[in-house]
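Quick one:
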Amino acid sequence: MYDLVLRRALITEDGAPADIAVIDGMIDVVGDVPPQAPARETIDCDGLVVVPGFIESHLHLDKALLSGIGRPAQTLADAIEVTGELKRDFTHDSVRARALQVLRWAVGNGTTLIRAHPDVDPVVGLVGLDVMLELRESQKHLVDLQVVAFPQEGIERAPGTYALLREALRRGADVVGGCTYNEADVAACRRHIDTVLGLAVEFGVPADLHADFADDTADGRFALAGALAEATREHGLGGRVTLGHVTSLAGRPPAERAEVVALLAEAGVAVVALPATDLYLGGRGDDRAVRRGVAPVRELIDGGVVTAYSSNNVRNAFTPFGNADMLDIGHLLAQTCHMGGPADTGRILRMATTEAARVTGVHDGYGIHPGARADLVVLGTRRHADVLADRPERRWVVKRGRVVARSVRTTEIIDTPVETAEGIRAA
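Output:
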């Protein structure tokens, strides 16, 4: 007996609807499932689009939902300072409540894996990390959670952070993080990179670093993507290093961009664009022709760099908006990066699914094919090309073969002609 059968699911744009049968949390059949095949639950998708579960590959759950607390931020440095002040009052319960709220929003919006980046530093200690480790276990029926030990305040700049990173990894952090630009000078930033990648090798985990988060490379601390590629090769970490933001790359001349893109591709370094935060904080010093401040996504993809996108922050000093909705962020990215063609929609969907799976290292068992994990989303639209424009409801969200969220959005137009008073006309 099957645990779940999705019937008449539109899996590809140019294909016919197919059935998907699930046993023990894994996809067993994609194709025709006999009508008489027994199943504990059957969903008739009726030609609706079905995609693999979305992946939030870069999300700060510990710092979510802080809008309205503290003063507004105008720049990246300001946002770090404001949030640093608020972190002093973080407790296990307060972090858990906010993180759990956003985690559940994400699940309702079709996300089945989150890579979370809790801060690890002398200000907050390991409070956020411990909450994420607890949620990783208690919420695993809803979502897979990867936990990154993230040194937001720097390592040398915040003495004691290195010891906390080691302890975080001993406690079970899945990934070691970095904040390459938050040190005093370029030399310290390079030491930061070597420290993080050294920990990745020692503990046998991937590395995920915030990098080059500025409008341009006037400050050398924000021109380190190429150095990161070289360091990745030196440490033998190809395919296991990810960079978030990388906005200043877009401010470099085309030839320099192409050179850095080639270095990243050759070294096996992935990039995650974070448009909601990057657009909000970028270009603050521009009084005309305000820069977009988003990584050059099209060039990265064309250059062979594994490229995804994510929400980054939800309703805090870094990003005062958001609902942990990957289709909303994809819609924003498409407009910002001039990716409006039919082929671009497919690219952006892959960035939220299969490419994000490569970023998070789960690609071997991901997708819609026999043997893949049954993490699926049934979307309320009938064409893949319309997914970003429609941003449809997530009719059913399936995690390991079990429905974990349902949504139906109903709008009724009251189209009843009425008599208007004689003589009343629009002005």
